[in-house]
Amino acid sequence: MQHSEKIDKVVPAMFEIQKKLGPAPKKSDNPFFKSKYADLLTVWEHIHDTMFEHGLFIIQPGKESERGTLSLTTVVMHAESQQWISGTMTWTLDKASPQATGSCVTYARRYGLAAIFGLMTDKDDDAEGAMDRKKKTGEGAAPDTNRGDFAGF
User: Fold this and answer.
1) Does the residue 110 lie in any domain?
2) 114, 37 in Cβ contact below 8 A?
3) Which residues are CB-contacts of 63 (< 8 A; sequence separation ≥ 6)?
4) Residue 40 phi/psi, 5° resolution?
5) Quick check: is 58 in a domain?
6) Is the alpha carbon torsion for 112, 116, 117, 120 positive or negative?
7) 73: helix, coil or strand?
8) pLDDT tens digits for range 38-61
9) Which of 3, 56, 95, 109 is least buried, going by the fewest C-beta atoms within 10 A?
């Protein structure tokens, strides 16, 4: 995280916002994983009134950080004091096309907003979704993360 020299106005505002906001509602469907998630518009709608009430606004500049990646910075600014905090995330582009870049920017904006405001937007699968594991059975099989009883742990 980076921030302006002083943050005595932006930090209390962020604290008040986080006290008021719960998890972002999951209004969109992911047909690939048969699950629901909070899309960018839903995350924005969830935070914007409370954020504006506390004098904050967002900018999210992006840039290509190296060939095949995109860095997006989420900056929360306090309108009156001009104090700010920011965080940057870097994403790998799957394809070199405007559509793939646009999709990555939307994804990065959603995750950047959720991260900087401490919002929960998706089910925490302990990174299992990012693992390249085939469904195995028997010894050496990955644990079934969808079970609620934590059998075997």
Assistant:
1) yes
2) no
3) 70, 71
4) -60, -45
5) yes
6) positive
7) strand
8) 889 889 999 999 999 999 999 999
9) 95
